[in-house]
């Protein structure tokens, strides 16, 4: 796991690019200071932290959580390797093993408790896997090349991700229990990646065109890969999420006359309305999550800092505020609850934001830092938190009813 300093440096780099974009377009946005208002604090929910532990090492991270409260992530072992895990309230943290090699890493979990990610084989190659409670870890193979990685899994047990072809290209794939791994192709170029799949098998990702530019796509079993284009004035785009209605969220890169003026814009694409800019009023925005209500969560840049936002159809964009210097989004549930991290000079703290409670700090396991990576529809949150003994443990924050 990257160190806090490395993660903050990466985020500050993103904000630097965003600040350059703001300077280029001359946008100054107002930020509502509602995160810590008295009314918000009165409506805040109390969260209880649960230490999920590790697999014997000093680091573990919770990356995904389903509505049953089962958590998937990765942990260092006592053999100094990294293994994927699934945690349940009844069984605790379970080592999912590997495909014969040293390391594995989980990316997503579905409502059936199946986990996907990437694991090393005995030959030292990295392959996508699907782990299930009955069958254990299954090698999903490749598209004829040496490697693959699972990015998401739906409740049908279908997995999407990226795999190498025999020609050495990297292509998006869809794996199904009945047909195995499909090559979803490209938009005329040589590269594509699938990042999300809904429960009817629709896939979102990005692919290169014949001109070598990246465009967001939506793939459906009926119509194949559809180029979602870009926002007006844009050259490239990338998808990050798809919901049950087939709507897609992502980022479109806007290129101005000067290279320094390039900036990303968060978008939502719908079958009826096409691609819509949801970051209007800001020089830079990035979408991170999309729910079935069509709400988009992400990050916008204001002069000097970055802020988490939630955009709602008919209501527009709402900046969620911050408790430190910057705030970042990692996930959002179907209720519109948003989770992520809030940075200050001395610490990084996990937060949950709700429309009634505002931005609420979730706390740590005795250390100085934490970050929330996923939230389910019950309001349970998972992520990573520092302990008082200088370790990093996977954590679950559970709302107290």
If you had to describe this structure to a student in words, what would you say it looks like?
This protein has 401 residues and is mostly beta strands. The chain has helices at 4-25, 38-42; strands at residues 47-53, 56-65, 71-77, 82-88, 92-95, 100-109, 115-121, 126-132, 136-139, 144-153, 159-165, 170-176, 180-183, 188-197, 203-209, 214-220, 224-227, 234-242, 248-254, 263-270, 274-277, 285-290, 296-302, 305-312, 316-319, 326-332, 338-343, 348-354, 358-361, 366-375, 381-387, 392-399. The strands form 8 sheets. It has a 4-stranded antiparallel beta sheet with strand order 1-32-31-30, with no helix packed on it. A 4-stranded antiparallel beta sheet has the order 2-3-4-5, with no helix packed on it. A 4-stranded antiparallel beta sheet has the order 6-7-8-9, with no helix packed on it. Strand 4 (82-88) and strand 5 form a beta hairpin. The longest helix is centred in the N-terminal third of the chain and has 22 residues, at 4-25. Mean pLDDT is 89; it is low at 3-42.
Briefly characterize the structure:
The chain contains two helices and 32 strands.
How would you characterize the largest beta sheet? 4 strands, antiparallel
| Distance from first to last alpha carbon | 33 Å
Mean pLDDT across all residues, rounded? 89
Strand pairing plus helix content: what structural class? mainly beta
Q: Order of strands side by side in the largest beta sheet? A: 1-32-31-30
Query: What's the helical proportion of residues?
Result: under 10%
Shape: globular
Unreliable residue stretches: 3-42
The total strand number stands at 32
Instruction: Please report the number of helical segments.
Output: 2
Beta-strand portion reads: over 45%
Radius of gyration: 20 Å
